[in-house]
Amino acid sequence: MTNLQLLTFLYLLLFAAFLVNCHSQEKKVYVVYMGEKQNADITVASVQQNLHYPILERVLGSSVAAKESLVYSYGRSFNGFAAKLSDEEVARFSDMEGVVSVLPNTKLQLHTTRSWDFIGLPSDLYVPNSKGEDVIIGMIDSGIWPESHSFSDEGFGPPPAKWRGKCITENNFSCNNKIIGARYYNHEKYYIETDIKSPRDPTGHGTHTASIAAGREVRGASYFGHGKGIARGGAPNARIAVYKACWYYGCSIADILAAFDDAIADGVDVISVSFGVLGFEYTNDPVAIGSFHALRKGILTISSAGNFGPSRAVVSNCAPWLLTVGASTMDRKFITKLVLGNGQIFTGVGVNSIDLNGTQFPLIWGGDAANYSANSFSQTSKGCYPGELNSHKVKGKFVLCEQRSTGIGVLMADGAGIIMPVQTFDEPAFPFSFPATLLTEEEIAKVLGYIRSSEKPVATILVAEAWKDNLAPIVAPFSARGPNMLAPDVLKPDLVAPGAEILAAWSPVASPSIEPTDTRTTNFFINSGTSMSCPHVTGVAANLKTINPTWSPAAIKSALMTTSYMMDPKKARKRKRICLRVWSTQPVNCSEPRTSL
Ligand SMILES: *[C@@H]1O[C@H](CO)[C@@H](O)[C@H](O)[C@H]1NC(C)=O
Ligand SMILES: *[C@@H]1O[C@H](CO)[C@@H](O)[C@H](O)[C@H]1NC(C)=O
Ligand SMILES: *[C@@H]1O[C@H](CO)[C@@H](O)[C@H](O)[C@H]1NC(C)=O
Ligand SMILES: *[C@@H]1O[C@H](CO)[C@@H](O)[C@H](O)[C@H]1NC(C)=O
User: SS3 string of 318-379?
Assistant: First the structure.
């Protein structure tokens, strides 16, 4: 796809979203949640449907209307249904006895910082036997790439007897004794070109999270040579059950609840979800509802805290029965150096995988390359957004930009590389499709000073290096912080785990950079987000379940939370004065001496 095609495609997508909205103004999909399932014996979906038709009929007036309206009938693990309803019908269901809540079918986002969060675009754009083979991890995500070496079933026996799930083998998808079950959910039947109608993962996200939780050892794994080593999940001997509820457009509530309904009844031991909503009451939050019924069956749900940090009070998945995971940095940090023509070297944040062999490229500031005929001028073109740059001036050059982006503006104008600002050096590095590095604003100003003071400014960008980060772990800047706005006395997140620059399995058809049109192929990818920290804890929880099969979700959660320890005692001793940043409307000055703490 060319860049223009991509833009056209995005417009079409927006337009399609608009059409869907228009069309559904009369009737939209709602989830009518009715709490505990009524009849313990009902495990067959069709029987449950017969229970829901009469309820729908009462409100909609006819059995034909009821049949047309029903989207999902939940009943394997909890009671409720999804149906197309008008505002008036919603009001009637809301007042009905036995109905806990009626949830509009909004879409949740995966908690990866890849691309959209990174570039600041709104994301709504769219372990018995001692080996753990009896523990089943349910992954509700964007599917899985079953052929990845991380999911090899070599040496695995058949699924444990308790397993009641199934494998949807549509479109060339197959399970094995590692991936023992796979289903997908898309009630809208809305698929874009790159979506695959099967549990297969075209995006890489579900493959990445599943391999972090339960991937087997893969030797020589790397991202184009970077981070080379043995890739291994937290519980390499656990089985994986895949519930694909997330698509290009996000994960809709009706689909998420269908996934939970199945996962619980199928007999998984832990559930992992790397998405969430912010600020929904528990009775309106699909993860809170699903995980509650999971808990009632002794299944712990591990969830991601979200990536809206470093702001406060932005943590998702706040229900007390969830194990909510924030993200920390690791001692490995990828850096990408920029070398100027005058010999100055800047160490930037980046995972540049393109070897320029030291070749120097002319360097230009975006503000000096405005496309005047596109009504751009220096003050706007310095941001390097698409359409702002004059390709005659930018072609074959490195461009210094003063705004963060995917770099598409520079790519469209045939630039050879990009230098962009980053708020702090602590932020995670993202792979780009072309040479790129991110510098702090002071460094950007220095590079600009060089451009201004030299007749022929040139520079080169080196391939990424892995550095030992002695400050790690710290809470990653993007990781959502508490307090919990719904119930401030329930502390959230519960734990942090590594979530920055994590190397794990990837779908070969997915883009290997934040540029969606990047056609290179990789089986491993470096990704950041609480999406990545969550499955780390899932893996550990699965191991605990293996060793202690009788432990309740609360026992597992408690064990994990009460055995965490300070990773760097030296650092703890040095920091004598603790500055507690309490949540308040008054800014806290941490330089001010405090004696009360
Ligand atoms: C099915 O998947 C396998 C493994 O990726 C591949 O080798 C084969 O070509 C695929 N077949 C079709 C019809 O897509
Ligand atoms: C750098 O050198 C490698 C190995 O010689 C080569 O494959 C690559 O194309 C070169 N890169 C550039 C940008 O010339
Ligand atoms: C400047 O912008 C116009 C209008 O978008 C575009 O047609 C033209 O190709 C651009 N010129 C250059 C040199 O990039
Ligand atoms: C914070 O307190 C220190 C010491 O009292 C003072 O020097 C500094 O100006 C204060 N900073 C702000 C932003 O108020």
Answer: CCCCCEEEEEECCCEEEEEEEEECCCCEEEEECCCCCCCCCCCEEEEEHHHCECHHHCCCHH
The pTM of this model reads: 0.84
pLDDT at 22 over 60: no
Q: What is the CATH number of the domain that holds 60?
A: 3.30.70.80
Q: CB of 167 within 8 A of CB of 174?
A: yes
Does one domain contain both 482 and 555?
A: yes
Give the whole-angstrom CA distance, residue 346 versus residue 446: 10
Residues 232 and 168 occupy one common structural domain: yes
**pLDDT tens-digit map of 292-319:** 999 999 999 999 999 998 999 999 999 9
pLDDT at 35 over 80: yes
Instruction: Assess whether 262 and 159 both reside in one domain.
Output: yes
Q: Are residues 176 and 291 in the same domain?
A: yes
- For residues 186 and 247, membership in a common domain is answered with yes
Coil vs helix vs strand at 159:
coil
- How far does the centroid of ligand 3 lie from the alpha carbon of residue 395, in Å? 13
| pLDDT tens column, 364-377 | 999 999 999 999 99
- Residue 57 beta carbon below 6 angstroms from any ligand 1 atom: no
Tell me the best of 3, 364, 371 to mutate to test the pocket of ligand 3, counting ligand atoms within 8 Å of each CB and taking the most.
371
Sign of CA dihedral 293, 296, 302, 303: positive
- Decide if pLDDT at 569 tops 70: no
Tell me the ligand closest to 388's alpha carbon: 3
Whether residue 429 sits in one domain with residue 404? yes
Which of 296, 271, 288, 286 has the alpha carbon at shortest distance from 140? 271
Identify the pLDDT of residue 4: 40
H/E stretch holding 11 reads helix 3-23
pLDDT at site 419? 97
Q: Confirm whether 6 is domain-assigned.
A: no
Residues 178 and 300 in one domain: yes
* Shared domain check, 383 and 324: no
Give the ligand whose atoms come closest to the C-alpha of residue 413: 3
- Largest Cα–Cα distance in the chain? 81
Closest residue to atom 2 of ligand 3, CA basis? 374
Q: Which domain holds residue 582?
A: 566-597
Say what the pLDDT of residue 523 is.
Answer: 96
Q: Which amino acid residue places its CA nearest to atom 8 of ligand 4?
A: 591
Provide the pLDDT for residue 585: 37
Rounded Cα gap, residues 589 and 586, in angstroms = 9
Q: Which of 592, 594, 595 to mutate to test the pocket of ligand 4 (most atoms within 8 A of CB)?
A: 592
Q: What is the CATH number of the domain that holds 150?
A: 3.40.50.200
| pLDDT, tens digit (0-9, with 9 covering 90-100), for 496-542 | 998 999 999 999 999 999 888 889 999 999 999 999 999 999 998 99
How high is the pLDDT of residue 125?
25
Q: Supply the residue whose CA is at minimum distance from atom 5 of ligand 2.
A: 357
Let me know: does 296 contact 462? Beta carbons within 8 Å.
no
Query: What does the pLDDT average to over 227-235?
Result: 84
Residue among 355, 433, 366, 370 nearest 398 (CA): 366
pLDDT at 594 over 80: no
- Burial 505-516, CB ≥16 within 10 A → b, else e: bbbeebbbbbbb
